[in-house]
Amino acid sequence: MKEVKKLWEEVRELSLGNNSEVERLNSAPTPLQFLRDHVSQNKPFIIKKPNLHWPAFSLWPQPSYLSNKLSSSLVSVHLTPNGRADSIVNHLGSLCFASAHVERMPFDEAIKLVSNSNLQDSKLVAYLQQQNDCFRSEYSVLGSECDEHIPWATEALGCYPEAVNLWIGNHLSETSFHKDHYENLYVVVSGKKHFLLLPPTDVHRMYIRQYPAANYSYSQDVGEFTVELERPIRFVPWCSVNPYPSPETRESEMAKFPSFFDGPKPFECTVNAGEILYLPSMWFHHVRQSPDDNGFTIAVNYWYDMQFDIKYAYFNFLQSIHYKSPHGPTLLEIECGDSGSVASAPNEGEADKVTEDE
């Protein structure tokens, strides 16, 4: 519908701007400014000088420091063949949603796996990205080296963060497009994070479809991954678009997802070490990263519960509208995979899934 396409443009003109850049603030906002100018408007920003005095900024980029500090800690490491956990993969000619193989091991072993992922012939990519409050559980010994919350955000939102998470990866770690039902304050400690962002109103450009859930399984004996479908079958709603297709597949990807590639440009931003990104609830985001001189990217994020208010009702209403791109067939009418089959879709609603995202 032309009305939906017009909405994408009007949201940018009225609230977000048309230059595809995220607003950058020189200093942290007051609680009132944060709530009035950004949370209520569902509008992201980056703080260039957030006035954080964390020991983490000088200590954590040193691998030996973390290894010594966490010498007795068991942590969860996520393993994939390519660095893309929680993403759509082709399995036996059909598409499925594959999550990483997760193993618990001493931190020293885990950080070596992350480092070895940088080797040219590596067939295994490790990422320390366990969620559900991993910083206050698996990495609790580091708690005094950064803030337990973001004071101006806590005051504005009227609560402490529900979860605080630590992320340690390398240049191969990549997160596919998804959204979260949290107000997200994302602090980069070392390296850089590269985000592509789209507002909730662009939901129809994401080509969200139901895919059967699967998991990577890794065999240390042969050093190879297999993909195993969950039994009983469970379906996961996920975005079908890869915003960075290879030169060989770019033309076909653009033909499959015209509303994404022909629509307004996603907002792009790089979050440098020492900076904070405010990522509003329900914004779609795709994440890549560049490591520091030691080969790592380290970040901490704070998940605050979103308010399930009128904005959430608007989003659910918009998502319920059937939209067919005027450019051509929908995704379900396009052959996907070598066999030409697609994942069946019992419904089109999106579940509230806590994702492995940054």
N-C termini distance: 33 Å
Strand content: 25-35%
Evaluate the radius of gyration: 20 Å
- Helical fraction equals 10-25%
Strand arrangement across the biggest beta sheet: 1-2-17-11-19-9
Which structural class do you get from the secondary structure elements? alpha+beta
Counting structural domains, the number is: 1
Averaged pLDDT: 88
Would you write up a description of this structure?
This protein is an alpha+beta fold and 358 residues long. The protein has a single domain (2-333), classed as Sandwich (Jelly Rolls). It is 21% helix and 31% strand. The chain is built from 9 helices and 19 strands. It has helices spanning 2-16, 31-39, 56-59, 63-69, 107-116, 151-157, 250-256, 258-261, 310-320, and strands at residues 23-25, 45-47, 74-80, 84-85, 87-91, 94-99, 101-106, 125-127, 163-169, 174-178, 182-190, 192-198, 208-219, 224-229, 235-239, 267-272, 276-279, 284-290, 297-305. The strands form 4 sheets. A 6-stranded mixed sheet has the order 1-2-17-11-19-9. A 5-stranded mixed sheet has the order 4-10-18-12-16, with no helix packed on it. Strand 1 (23-25), helix 2 (31-39) and strand 2 form a beta-alpha-beta unit. Helix 2 (31-39) packs across helix 6 (151-157). The chain is globular and about 55 Å long. Mean pLDDT is 88; it is low at 328-356.
Helices, strands, pairings?
Blueprint lengths: L1 H15 L6 E3 L5 H9 L5 E3 L8 H4 L3 H7 L4 E7 L3 E2 L1 E5 L2 E6 L1 E6 H10 L8 E3 L23 H7 L5 E7 L4 E5 L3 E9 L1 E7 L9 E12 L4 E6 L5 E5 L10 H7 L1 H4 L5 E6 L3 E4 L4 E7 L6 E9 L4 H11 L38
Parallel strand pairs: 1-2, 4-10, 6-13
Antiparallel strand pairs: 2-17, 3-7, 3-8, 5-6, 9-19, 10-18, 11-17, 11-19, 12-16, 12-18, 13-14, 13-15
